Amino acid sequence: MITPKLYGGLEAGGTKFNCVLAHTPSKILARASFPTTTPEETIGHVIDFFQSASRERGPLSALGIASFGPVDRSTGSETYGYITATPKLKWVDTDLLGQIANALRVPAEFDTDVNGAALGEGVLGAAKGLENYVYVTIGTGVGAGIMANGRPVNGAIHPEVGHIFIPRDPQDTDFPGACPYHGDCLEGLVAGPALEQRWGCKADQLPVDHQAWDIQARYLAIMCINLTVCYSPERIILGGGVMQQGHLFPKIRAHFKKLMNGYEQGPAAGNLENFIVPPGLGNAAGETGALLMAQRTAERLEQPPGDMTSTINRVQQ
Ligand code: ADP
Ligand code: ZN
Fold this sequence. Notes:
five-stranded mixed β-sheet; 8 helices; Nucleotidyltransferase, domain 5; binds zinc ion; binds adenosine-5'-diphosphate; alpha/beta; 2 domains
């Protein structure tokens, strides 16, 4: 009998690191979650988890890591796999991939958390079968994984959709914004910490009929319009802690339609309930994407060496 391969997935978030173990992403065999404290402590827990899982269930074939950023995801770079200039100061210049892959001696693939989540949603979630879509998280920060023609858009480094500048709402001109770099960029206006600063309580404590939500929906609609006109997606998926406020979706769609003012075409002109949607995988998009990255790494390693164009195997022999 052939033993099915065992894959590890790590969703490295700014709040917590989620580790999962599976033969297939749709059936998680084991999971653990560790708060994001210091690299030594959190990475130590991750390594312990996968080491003890391997002792129990056999060796991992590969690991996928989908990380908060900014990260260096250029495979040729000396700092490939590092978390770089993050506002979380303890994590600046942390070799996340190297530390984990070398401790576990396992081939690993590394990408941003949002590219991981976009992959998960594309294979098993709300964007199944689509080649052009965007996954946006609105949580502690704002970030987007953009898929165009079936591939993630990474550009020179990676897009920073959270930091686009958008026009201020006429009802919301006083708040300077919470982004340490730009003040009132998108993230500085709509991420969870910005809502908390702006309204004086945690976002999940704001009543549904609070004016905050209409302002929030308008900013997110403007973001969706900008993404639509730049990337022509077939669908936009909005996830992250703040989007637990499900009542935001109809409000965002209504502002989108009003502000587009008839200019929309294609999927954006159809039923917006199919265009601006919640994640099909709920909170599991990131970990699912990480497992899919592990799976494709293992498949790539099975190919003849000549086919391994961009090698992501960082195991020290
Ligand atoms: P992270 O971005 O750190 O990976 P999340 O996506 O869970 O984690 O986002 C956390 C942010 O989302 C926090 O700022 C929190 O206040 C906010 N948040 C979490 N749950 C809710 C909720 N139900 N309603 C509104 N905001 C929420
Ligand atoms: Zn900014």
